[in-house]
Amino acid sequence: MDLKSELLKSIWYAFTALDLERSGKVSKSQLKVLSHNLYTVLNIPHDPSTLEDHFRDDNDGPVSSCGYMPYLNKYILDKVQDGNFAKETFNELCWTLTAKKNYKPPREQGTISERDAFKLWCLFNFLSEDKYPLVVVQEEVGYLLRKLFMAMGQEWLHEEELTDYFTQNPSLAGAVTVWQFLEMMESGRFTKSVSKESLALGIQSVYEELVLDVTQKGYMWKKGQVRRNWNERWFVLKASQIHYYVNEDLKEKKGEIQLDMDSTVEVLPDKEGKRCLFCIKTANRTYELSASDTKRRQEWIDSISASIWIQSENKRSLYIEQKEKRRLQRQQAAQRELERKMEEEHLVELQQEKERQLLEIEHLKQAQDEAQVLWRTKELYWMKQQQDMQLKLQRELQKAHTDKLQMQLVMEQKELEAGAQRHRIQELETMQRGMEQALKAEIQAHTHEQSVRSAQARLLQEEEEKLKELMRLKFEQQDIIQRTQQEKRQLQQQITSKAQALQQAMEELRETRQRNKQDLAVAERRRKRASQYVKHWDVQLNRLMKPVEPGDKAKWKASAEATQNQPSSDMLSHRGGGAFTSKEFSSMETIGKTRPQDRYNDPKNSTPVSVETLESDSEDYENIEEFLKNVSLTGAMPHKMKSHDGCMDW
Predict the structure, then answer these.
(1) What is the end-to-end Cα distance of the chain in Å, rounded?
(2) Given the DSSP bridges, would you call strands 230-238 and 175-176 parallel, antiparallel or unpaired?
(3) Distance from C-alpha of 319 to C-alpha of 216, rounded to nearest angstrom
């Protein structure tokens, strides 16, 4: 039973309640009110103009259920979404409309209250057949009463009384309407031994189980996810969700566990002082729970596993499946009963056929007696004819005997010929078997030859492919060798050209070295000459530092003349050799003022490098590059310098 059929049952009661004249028609104004209320309780957006557009041709007249059904299906039932509305509120709306007209509670305090009557009405709709007017068959009434007694903790012992109730009321025809069912429950015919409070609790339990789809409920301990402590919660398993509350009044909801086809439930060992543990694994979290005892834990595991199975099979409810199964069993039982009746009718027909056949047999017996009399008369005639025929046959037998003897002789001769033929056939069969064996051997040899030939052809093909591969490798090797030889020749040419260039550079370096040696010798000679000049000027400077005192003029002149006539290096004065006179001092002083830059060209300020040192250094180096590097580092390389007298000195 789908959601649409389930809702349609309650709406049918509301529609029939509005049909006061029982004509099957309801005014459009009443249907507007009903549709608006259905939109509200089913949480569907309401469009008031659709009803007017749907019945525009008859705005004032009533609308039958057949005319209202297309509108109901298109604009209400097709838009309903399961879980988007409160099913109990919807049922209360339909019950309110139908109870005003059809339900009359007892004036005195009856067995059931009006709220219990509403729950029984919902249970009746759930168990009713999918045909109108709605009825519940005897088997479903018994199932509901058994569920009530089990919920109250009692055993159902009134099956025979229920059967008698339906048997004594032929008008029921094996089924009751909801009002007959409520009248039966209010009479207390089957619940005399049960208190009103127990019955109310039983009705509530069965109502939650079948209508609200609550398959299990009770207190259990749950382990927290964050604080990891254990708290006692009231759990309610409803369809594919497990809701848990602070207590059983359902006022403070703490959370819910969403079950799907991938969820699992497993038993856990006792730990942390808790026993009867099990866990529910979902896609987002694992919930650890503790039941009161092992039985309750198994009940919870079975109920949760059933809910997961329903999700995996894409079914609505376990009890709906059980109801459909019971309906199928009733249909099968009815089919078997129909087959049994048909079989009994068939047996009656067979019995009648048998009696008819017996009559026919009697008629046949009479006809047979008459035939026997006729047979005796004919038999005498046939006996006479038989005697005549017997004499004739004896003569023919004698002739046949002689013919038989002749035939025996012929048969013996034929037997001999047949034996020879059989012997020949055996020889031919032996020869055939030998030829078949030879043919099999030849076929096997031919097959073997074909396999060998195919293997040989495959080997030849592989050898040909390998030969092609070897030829390709050979050509590649030849190409590589040719490229290697060309590269080798190019490298040899480069080495030769570089060797020639190196040889030429070595010769140039040798020539440069020879010229450098010559230039160094010239520079050394000039340096020696310059050092002599320096020594001379040092002597003169020393003499200038000690000026001559005034004395005899003749003596001064004589000494000046003697000084001019003698080399500067051999001059002597009263202050020692090489001292300047006043005239010489003044001339030197003039030279010192006019050429001060010559002081900075003094060879004393430079570091002298001898030719022998350079030659020894140059001979100690094994190659020309190290020699040139050493010369540049020590500053002994000759540089062109311009002297004060305009000559180029090395």
Answers:
(1) 126
(2) unpaired
(3) 13
pLDDT tens for residues 226-236?
Answer: 888 899 999 99
**175 beta partners:** 137
- What's the rounded Cα separation, in Å, for the pair 567 and 577? 11
pLDDT in tens, 271-289: 888 899 999 999 888 999 9
Can you say whether the dihedral through the CA atoms of 635, 637, 642, 647 is positive or negative?
A: positive
Residue pair 251/244 in contact by the 8 Å Cβ criterion? no
Report the mean per-residue pLDDT for the chain: 79
How many residues comprise the chain? 650
Residue 287 has a CB neighbour count (10 Å cut-off) of 17
Quick check: 583 and 560 in contact, CB under 8 A?
Answer: yes
pLDDT at 193: 78
| 298 pLDDT more than 90 | yes
Neighbours of 599 (CB within 10 A): 10
pLDDT at 102 > cutoff 60: yes
Residue closest to 278 by CA, chosen among 297, 296, 257, 255? 297
What percent of the residues of the chain are helix, what percent strand, and what percent coil, each to the nearest 5?
Answer: 65, 10, 25
Phi, psi of 209 (to 5 degrees): -70, -45
> What is the spatial distance between Cα 331 and Cα 313, in angstroms, rounded to a whole number?
24
Are 263 and 281 in contact, with CB atoms under 8 Å apart? Answer: yes
State pTM to two decimals. Answer: 0.49
pLDDT, position 596? 41
Q: Would you put residue 198 in left (φ > 0), alpha (ψ -120 to 50) or beta?
A: alpha
Predicted confidence at residue 84, as pLDDT, reads 82
Q: At 619, is the secondary structure helix, strand, or coil?
A: helix
**Assigned token pair, 438:** 């030879």
DSSP 247: S
- 114-127 and 87-102 helices cross at what angle (nearest 10)? 110
List, as one string, the DSSP characters of 332-382: HHHHHHHHHHHHHHHHHHHHHHHHHHHHHHHHHHHHHHHHHHHHHHHHHHH
Residue 492 predicted with pLDDT over 70: yes
Q: How confident is the model at residue 590 (pLDDT cuts 50, 70, 90)?
A: low
